[in-house]
Write a structure and sequence with these properties.
This is Helix-turn-helix transcriptional regulator. InterPro entries: Cro/C1-type_HTH, Lambda_DNA-bd_dom_sf. The chain has a single domain, classed as Orthogonal Bundle (434 Repressor (Amino-terminal Domain)). By secondary structure, it is mostly helical. Helix 2 (18-25) crosses helix 3 (29-37). The chain has five helices and two strands; from the N terminus they run E-H-H-H-H-E-H.
Length: 71
């Protein structure tokens, strides 16, 4: 089992720009890109703030993938 970050999909659904989100979070836009690519982990506090900005639940930012079913 692994956790897939669905941040890019949630940002697209929100219609917000990554630069706008980064500014609201007081982070660099490259941090947002790192979260999307999986190269950087999202701390819980940032995930909660992201969910608030994107008007979603924190759980909406992630998907649990069962690798046994992926084949």
């Amino acid at each position: 089992m692994r956790i897939k970050v669905k941040l890019n999909e949630m940002i697209e659904e929100s219609g917000l720009r990554k630069k706008h989100i980064a500014k609201k979070l007081d982070v660099n836009p490259t941090t947002i890109s790192g979260w999307i690519s999986g190269k950087r982990r999202i701390f819980l506090e940032d995930a909660v703030r992201l969910a608030n900005i994107l008007n979603c639940d924190v759980n909406d930012l992630y998907e649990i993938v069962d690798e046994r079913k992926e084949g």
